[in-house]
Every structure is written in structure tokens, then in C-alpha cells.
Amino acid sequence: MKFPAYKIWLSILLLATFGFVHAQETQKMYLSGIGSDHTVNWQFYCTAGQNSGKWTTIPVPSNWELQGFGKYNYGFNKDSVKGKEQGLYKYKFKVPASFKNKVVQLVFEGVMTDVEVKVNGKLAGPIHQGSYYAFKYDITSLLNPSGSNLLEATVSKHSANTSVNAAERKGDFWIFGGIFRPVYLEALPQQHIARIAVDGQANGNFQAQIYLKNIQDAGFLSAQIYTIDGQKVGSAFSANINKADTVIQLQSTLSAPKLWSSEFPNLYKVEFTLSQNGKTIHTVSKRFGFRTIEVRSRDGVYVNGVKVKFKGTNRHSFWPTSGRALNKGVSIMDVNLIKEMNMNAVRMSHYPPDDHFLDVCDSLGLYVLDELAGWHGHYDTPTGTRLLKEMMVHDENHPSIVMWINGNEGGHNYELDPLFRKWDLQHRPLIHAWEAYGGFDTQHYRDYNYGIGNYMHGHDIVMPTEFLHGLYDGGNGAGLEDYWEAMWNDPLSAGGFLWAYLDEGVVRTDKNGALDTDKDHGPDGVVGPYREKEGSFFTIKEVWSPVHIEHREITSAFDGVLHLENRYYFTNLNQCTFKGKLTKVTDPYGKVTHAETSFSIASPAIRPFEKGDLKLNLPADWKNYDFLYVTATDPHNHELFTWSWPITKPEKVARKLVVQANPNTITIHEADSLYNITANGIKLTINKNTGILRRVENAKGVIPFNNGPVLQEGANNFKNFTQKFEGKNLVIESAFDKKNSYNTLQWTIYPSGWVKMEVRYFPGDYLTNFDGVNFSFPEKQMKAVQWMGSGPYRVWKNRMKGTQLGVWKKDYNNTETGESWNYPEFKGYHANMYWCRFITQTQPFTVVAQDEDTFFRLFTPAFKDDQWHNYQLIFPSGDISFMQAISAIGTKTQRAETTGPMGMKNIFYDYEKEPKRAKILTMFFDFSGR
């Protein structure tokens, strides 16, 4: 039986509280809850804003805004650092008898922002300034060991230290207040181990620095390494200690350890024991991994001797109902989602995370860039020195941390740089985000074609810590394929990090629970506030799949071989599994039965960075199916991606669906400027002068699909229409004229009532946003669509990957990406259309494509923009469109055309106005209401 993480931790808490642990181990007693999902109520008084001026209670840990107190502030808010909001906390507690004669420390994992702490009316120590750092006070002398104790904390939301406000409070993110991480007591022996720093290298060399406190007598310090499940590894190693010793070095070597990496996160545990006169005084254990991080100048980043490229995202510590107060369950969810996108790295933006997040990165495998806070402003040197030490002591032993960052986008205090190496036993690399430093160029948001100085054409290792800035539906996945292929093939590229992992939509307790992203400041993520998956999620998953499949067309001559590239660093593809599937999909009317068959695929032995073949064991009748799927699964049984290919082409599907013959005859009546046509109970009205469809009606009533086809970015110069019968089929067509009416339209009405539209056209310019035709349909009458093609997510020209071929259905929604989160969005472009059944408030109608690579467009999302006008949602006119080229989408920092070739406009070179050189769009319509 599996238990929730908080229950496991609660058990530990109870054991520590009542002393049911070995006396020589550090005892821990929580005064708060262990996370946002398990809190403890404290007395609370807020001095300003909502619910201020009265004593009440508040859960700890939490941010007080999310509990209905104070004022919400986004970092750009001009008054965000002027407010005098304070939270006054009180909590009474008793200490267990087992704490007697122990050193008792009061630990705060994180408080926003300044906090003055008293125990039984006396100051515990100096006011702590800085939000994201664990700190502690020795309160042994302040405690009443046999009675009640009163803890008081006065928390100021904004700091009295201007440099702390500059580094933390003026950033591009929500600003909260409160005790937002756990609070607990630690009870240690009088002589004890105060800190441990470990370093396990890939060659098996292990070293540790053990910091001791209050050593009164000579003794012995020993260590033993264990597997994570408790099996001894190697021999114990030790050193003598003398009175007053403060730091001891221990070293050992383990033969052929299992190495830690993002692909194989092998962990060990080391236990240190302080002894005197044969008696154990104190025992402390730490998890660690054997791995080596090396930066080779003008070359790259090496993990365990292998050159790696980071595929990463920037993650804020955030949950919409609790702000920065989180729990281990959220950390597990986030790491799993990040890895599900085939990422191998995460940057802590822009401050150190909860310890449980780093624990999960250690155990599940993510490379972490841990960051000292700073956002255009930085800490002064005394404050920064203290906070850097707190970050280092708290985080130093996590094997997932492979780099440190000294501030973001100008928030670098250069005087602190030497301290990172001085205090880090592992000597991990140090970078400055958005600056050329330490042999890295980490500049943010450079255009794809940027080639000035070091970036892509210089000598430094290029590793942008932010390179595509998500905004609503732009960025993140849009443009990624172009950037990544360039990065993958550039020897000086060490990869990069997308901005950002999640939309910061916070629940506004002052606005009836509305989710607020502060306009365009917060909706930057690839997942929503509650981790809803946007379309870019799946694009990233495909683009960053370590199994890379070369483009391959499936024709009748297909030999069942797909060409692979292994983009892993430590995994042979024979450690992965592959499965194949063939599917025959249903038709719009449910007459064709869905059928599928699976087949085996042997995993090929392809080493990292090498190429090879995947041989599909296709059944003999594979050509009778519509789609082919191949799924790759990693060694830990997680899906890397499922790729799909068309076997059946749209033309074949159209031939099966479109019924032409019928014993009924077609009638046509000309009245004024209109053709009035009746075929098998379907009535059509077409304008004689323009060829535009004006009205559609059947026995059930009017279908309000009309006012088309209207060419988009092309001249709507259809002229000189004539009508004639070709057998029983009625043909209405315009005349071609090279100068005045070079675009032509032909309608064919079959006796069955099916209607064929063929448009031959020339785009309006060499470069166009989109090519195709539009129709009108009242949005309020649309209920749903069901279609055969790529789905279920919409696409953009620079975000075509991440979908799969199949039959999809989705109900109408008015989702605005990043502001509402009912995904997938209904509105937008959809790729590889075979057919689409439009389900309306009255009756359905069906449209069938004849040509490959046909898009259908559903309505227009609400206009969105940013202050630089980069995002630019560009859609055609009309309501429903059938297109052969679509627009790209920009990001918050780049217009679409600067994100790479896929983001550029569509090109049509041939301007000889001859019919045979025109683009041809052929569609079929079923207005029978079936």
C-alpha cells in the first residue's frame, strides 16, 4: 500500500516529537506543518490590507495573501516595496523530555522577507533578511524545558534592506509575504556534527568536510557508504579528532560506483558517526551521487566525461492557491512533468527552491542550476555573503545541482563570485544569467539569426539561460525545433532553458477566487497554474525526444525501416523499448469500424550520438490501414513519444466518402444575380457574379455556412461564371483571364447533394501569412468538431510537432491560452485534415479535403499582444477556413520571423499567371445533415 508523502513525513515528525529515535541522531520537531498540504494553525495579526487589524489564525507554512490577508503585489507594481505590511505570528509549544541537555536550534526554511524572532519574549538572534534561504537560531538558553514556550515572529513583507528589495521584490513575478516554508526544532548532542559537505566523483573518489561543534574531548569520526536501500558499499573510513577540532576531512575510494546522471540517477547514502571512548555521540547521514561536472573551455559541459547539452526550463516555486508555499507532492509532479517533456535540466528562477524539490531532482534525475536571487538588482555584499552561505549549506550535497548562478539579468554582485568556489567542496561551475561570464555566453532571447560577437559565432560556450520566452500560446514550443537543431549541431552549444515552466496564475482571495496572471506578466508557461498541458508541452516532448526519427514518407514501397539517431548521452537504444501499431479509423458517419493491430519491434543497439535503423515487423496487410504509430519508451518505462505517419492519403478517403450518383436530378434556377440549385433535398444559393456561396438549406432547415470561398491574401477576382451539366453533375465555374481574373473557382454539384469546390489561385505576394479560403459561420452556433487528421492540439507554422494523426473530437470552448486553461483550445489552426464534421446547435455538416497538407481553421482567438508587439496573433478573416499555408506565432521577446525559418512567412515564387502554375485547393461538402 502506498501512503501520501505528507503521511510518511508526519510519521517522522511524530517519532521525532516523542523522542522515538536513537539518542545519537539529530531529533526534529516540527512547529509548523511540513508543507502546504499539511499545515499547523498559528495565531496571526496582519497590519494592513485585507483582514488586517485583528488577531486570528493562519496556517503555517503559507503566504498570507492566499489566506485572505494583506495586499497582492506583482513585482512591477510601483508600490510593492513601499507598503508597511507585516504579519505578527505567535505559537505556543512544549519540548519533549528527550531534548533535555541537548542543543536546540530553531530552524526556518523560508520567510518573506524580514523576520524578527522571539522565544519567551527574548530575541532569538538578529533579524533575518532574505526570503528563500533557511536559517537557524540556537535557542537552548531561551527555552522553558518543562513548560510552555511562546514563539513570536514579526514578518515584514518588504525588507528594510534596499538591496534585498532590489534582488527579490522588484522582479517579474508575484511578491508574497509570510512564513512559507516549514519551521522546526533540531535537538543535537552538546558535541555534535554541525555541517557536512560531500563530493563523490565519477572515478569513485569520495571526500567529505565535516564541521564539528563544541568538541570537548578527543575522539573518533568514522564514515560508511551504503546503497540507497541500506547495503554497505566498500569499507568504513575514519579519522581521529582532538579537542576543539572544528573541521575534519575524510576520504575514500569506491571501486566502479554506479554513477549519477539525469538518465540514471543512482544514489548512495553516507553515514558519519562521532564517537568518544567507544560511545556513539552523534550520527548524521547524507544522500549523494557519484558524478563529475567539468567545463572544458571553448568546448562544453561534461558530465561523467560525456559532453552534454541541457534541455531545460525555468521553474518558479508556485501553486495558485498557496503561492510559494509548496509540498513534496507538487515537487514530484513538477519533476515528472518536466521529464515527461524529455527535458534533462531545470533552472531555479530566480531563487533557491524547497529542499524537497532538490530531493526529487536527485532521485528522478534532473540537472539543476541553483540560483542566488537577483533580478536586475542584487544583494549588497554583507547580505549576499550571508545568504549565499545559507544557500550553500542547505543545498550543497545534492548531486542534481551541477551549476550555481549568481543572480539574473544584471542582478550579479561580482564580489560574491569567489565565495562560490571557496565554499563549494565540489567546485561546481558558476555562471551569471544573461551575461558572458566564466566561459559561458548565457545571453537571453537572441534572434535565431543573431551572429554578432560570441553568440553562436564566437569562442565561448553558448548556453542561454532563457532563449524562448513563452507568452500565452507563443514561445516555448513555437520556434523550438529550429533553435534546437541549430544547438544540437553546434559544438559550442551547451543547450539552453525555456522561459518558463508554468503560468503564474494566482487565486485572488480579494477577487472572489479569480485566477490572475497580472495581464501578460504571468502567462509564460508551458503548463498552466494547476499544471494543465498546453500544446507546446507535446511539441517540446517530440522535439526533445532523445530518440530522434529522421523524416520518412510512408509509400507503398516502404520497407519498414525508420532511420534513428540516439540523442541520449548514457543510454543505448537497446535499453529502450519500441512498440508499433496500425489503425483503421472510423468515418464521419460511424459506418467504418475502428480497427487496430499491434506489432513487435526489436530495440536496435545504437550507442549515444550514433545513428542506426529501426526495423518494423509490419504485418502483410499493413497497407490496408490508415495510420502507422511507433512508441518509444525509456529504460524506466516512461514514454518518450508516439510518432504517427499517414498510410492512406486524403484523396483515397475522399473517394470513399464522397457520393456522387443519385437517381434524383439537379435543378437550377437563375434569379437576378443568383443561382438557386436543388439536389437531393439540398438547396444552395450561389452568387452568379462572384461565385460566393450565399445560402445552404436542407429539409431540417438552414445551415448558416456561407460567404465563401473568400481568398485570403489573394485577389478574389472570380469572374464570368457559367453553368453547365456534365452528365448529371452541375458545374458552375469562372473563366480564366491572365490579367483580370487569374484566380478561378469551380463548383460541382452532384445528384447526391454532395458539393465539390475547386479553387485555383495565386497568393497575393511572394510572402504571405497564410494561403487559402474563408467562410462565415456564427460562432455561437458551434457545439463541437470531430475530425480525421492531426490533433488534438492546434498548430502554428513554427509549432507543427507534438500532434498525432487520428480521429479527434472536441467541444467548443473559448479558452484563451494562459488566461483560461480548458485545453486543448478549440479555436485555431489544425493540421493534416482529411475530413471534419462540424457539430452545430441545429444540425451537422461535413467537409472533406482532397489534398494533403490541408489545414482547417476554427474562428479567431481573442486579440492578444505585448508591449513590443511581438506576440502578434495573425488570423485570416471569416470564421472557418481551409488553408494550404498558415501563420506562425511570436513570443514575448521575438516576432515570429526571428525565431527561425519556420517562423517566416510562406513563400510562393511563381508569378506566371497560368492556370497550371496556380495553387489548387479542392474540398467536398456534405450538407445533408447526417
Entry keywords:
Jelly Rolls; glycosidase; TIM Barrel; Immunoglobulin-like; single chain; EC 3.2.1.23; nine-stranded antiparallel beta sheet; 930 residues; 5 domains; carbohydrate binding; hydrolase; seven-stranded antiparallel beta sheet; disordered N terminus; calcium; mainly beta; 9 helices
Q: Mind sketching the topology for me?
A:
Blueprint: H1 5-17, E1 27-30, E2 40-46, E3 55-60, E4 73-74, E5 86-93, E6 103-108, E7 111-112, E8 114-119, E9 122-123, E10 128-129, E11 135-138, E12 149-156, H2 162-169, E13 174-175, E14 178-179, E15 183-188, E16 192-200, E17 205-213, E18 219-227, E19 232-241, E20 247-253, E21 268-276, E22 279-288, E23 293-296, E24 300-303, E25 306-308, E26 310-315, H3 328-340, E27 345-348, H4 355-364, E28 367-375, H5 381-395, E29 401-408, H6 417-423, E30 430-433, E31 436-437, E32 440-441, E33 461-462, H7 480-489, E34 495-498, E35 506-508, E36 514-516, H8 535-543, E37 547-549, E38 561-566, E39 577-584, E40 595-601, E41 611-615, E42 627-633, E43 639-646, H9 650-657, E44 667-671, E45 674-679, E46 682-687, E47 693-698, E48 701-703, E49 706-712, E50 722-726, E51 729-733, E52 744-749, E53 755-761, E54 767-768, E55 771-776, E56 782-791, E57 804-811, E58 828-830, E59 835-840, E60 845-849, E61 855-858, E62 880-885, E63 906-907, E64 919-926
Parallel strand pairs: 26-27, 26-34, 27-28, 28-29, 29-30, 32-33
Antiparallel strand pairs: 1-15, 2-3, 2-5, 4-13, 5-12, 6-11, 6-15, 7-14, 8-9, 8-10, 8-12, 16-17, 17-20, 18-19, 18-21, 21-22, 23-24, 24-25, 31-32, 35-36, 37-38, 38-41, 39-40, 39-42, 42-43, 44-45, 45-46, 46-47, 47-48, 49-55, 50-51, 51-52, 52-53, 53-64, 54-63, 55-62, 56-57, 56-59, 58-61, 59-60, ...
